[in-house]
């Protein structure tokens, strides 16, 4: 009982003492990455985009307002327990914002960041009702969220069917986790409103590559459309199975987490015509890439050597970093100091106003819709568009403009959910 | 020389059969307890509590539970993850339904509910054993996780299927929820771990434990000498599930604060607890703690060394971590197939004679 554990403790104590960082003078923006495990193919490009944008700011502008941005990376493997471990170890470095790229970890950390007073940024994922700033003071999920995504998918399908989905059947094939379950309530409401029949088909995260029975069900029931809420290896498996049962790719539509190159390339030409949503552009046809090339790639500073530059998920990581950087800039402006604290960055997130002109200044012309947040609204416009995979050109082509979600349906749902959370946790509503 | 029993005379049977018959061991144990209860709570940080000590203590409780079933009673179980889920969801339902009752009582009640569920899924053990029983308990694992995903009543109809612990306090100290201090978390888990280890130790050396071991060693012979296999196996399942249920309830309410059946209590959790028992040592209380320490602390330790001190890329470190932990498991099992507990026992035997081996 004693000697061994004493020795182990001594060793552990030394290790943590060695690992404990000195006080940082710079702004710390941790990167909760996952480059191992079944979600690595999606996690790595995202983490690279996130890193590279901050490297660009550090190299080109010397950081934000003269403050260097330090991006310590922590491997979560998309596992909530590891994510909590990462959060606790990074908390000692006084991060100004937490961005876990996982809905499970986000749920875990929402109470913790609220208690520790560190803002959390979850663009396009996390808890949808965190959009309600009256309840979730420390959480931001602009520009869009899962319920917006569900609503936009239905809006697109309405357009496709001349505004009438009556009697149609839509299957939701989802990752059986907090992420995949999020849109169910919205889709149920929408099915009541528009008269379509909704079938919910879960795929267990532990065995998300095995979808034979799910696709057998789809083949038997022949739904008019399949909405895919998948992540990691579940996506290529779903698209491959769809091709195997000859389900028409044009009738499938994925959430933005099921619409990257890694998801469709495995199925080859069979994936041609698959559609997915997106809330930002992809590819290297943006002026920012000239700067990235000059200051980051050519100097050999690209994260992991830059194997994913310009891909959809790389662009998403970059988008997340860009919004975070703008929030820090805003915080510096509001606080009148460059060395901002986490609480001041929260104020920055709440006063975000990234207009189209500002995006153009950043070298991201027409990259994504404008973002504007307020005390009540931490979720932004919620807009997204639909893109389609061209297997021969190996490119995602936008086929619609940015849609607004059906706020008539979503807003009451969000209010109900966030107010229930407020009641459960004795939170008094802000912004009065 | 330093570790010896010379002059340590026993004058009563009671003294002779105590848990730590050697004075040195006993004092070491008291010292460890004193440090754990009186020193660590004052110096513990959030990081040490949440990343190291709290998960270690919780998994030690789970390993104790599985060790009772597998190590002492010889019934293989792959359902630990599912039983932990029962504990977690039971404590959640109880805590939200009866907020005026202390969460500590809910944790114990959750253990009781898990014991009932465990007995239910233990019934096949009366007919089947070995690999067949493993498969039956595997079914429990999948069924329970499916159940907690499928029936919204268990997660109070929340949109995402997540359960989130409400804030609860005990004697004015907040012990669940985000505002919990590191020492409160640690002390709650330590209290349960010490209490349950004490219970386990005393159960296993009494009549109940002896019937378990008789069943483990040879069930037919045990039956002939008058051990009732029904009560022996069912008590083993009940006590084991109680421990695992308490571990699951603590994992959810004190450690994580939010959980989801398929992610937190999947089949991986069952394997993790089983590995702890096997590496620590089957049929040993100390082994449960050693196994939990090995599998909880080593990855954190390696991560801190490889990423924190050496500054290696996180993905490389994560891969190396798997390789090193895997290699060490194989190494330890080759060197000492009976686990870390046996290694410790052998070391102690040698230390008694040292430095005069003959």
UniProtKB/TrEMBL annotation, chain A:
Similarity section: Belongs to the leucine-binding protein family.
PANTHER family given in the database record: BLR6548 PROTEIN
CDD domains named in the record: PBP1_ABC_ligand_binding-like
Domain Leucine-binding protein: 32-392
Family annotation (InterPro entries): Leu-bd (IPR028081), Peripla_BP_I (IPR028082)
Protein name: Amino acid/amide ABC transporter substrate-binding protein, HAAT family
UniProt keyword annotation of Signal present: yes
Source species taxonomy: Bacteria, Pseudomonadati, Pseudomonadota, Alphaproteobacteria, Rhodobacterales
Signal sequence, renumbered to the chain: 1-19
Organism from which the protein derives: Paracoccus solventivorans
UniProtKB/TrEMBL annotation, chain B:
Cell compartments where the protein resides: Cell membrane
Pfam families linked to this entry: BPD_transp_2 (PF02653)
GO molecular function: branched-chain amino acid transmembrane transporter activity
Top-level taxon of the source organism: Bacteria
TM region positions: 27-49, 56-74, 101-123, 130-148, 236-259, 271-296, 316-335
Keyword terms: Cell membrane, Membrane, Transmembrane, Transmembrane helix
UniProt cross-references to InterPro entries, sorted A to Z: ABC_transp_permease (IPR001851), LivM-like (IPR043428)
Record membrane topology: Multi-pass membrane protein
Gene Ontology cellular component terms for the protein in this record: plasma membrane
PANTHER family in alphabetical order: ABC TRANSPORTER PERMEASE PROTEIN (PTHR30482:SF5), HIGH-AFFINITY BRANCHED-CHAIN AMINO ACID TRANSPORT SYSTEM PERMEASE (PTHR30482)
Protein name per Swiss-Prot or TrEMBL: Amino acid/amide ABC transporter membrane protein 2, HAAT family
Organism (species): Paracoccus solventivorans
Lineage of producing organism: Bacteria, Pseudomonadati, Pseudomonadota, Alphaproteobacteria, Rhodobacterales
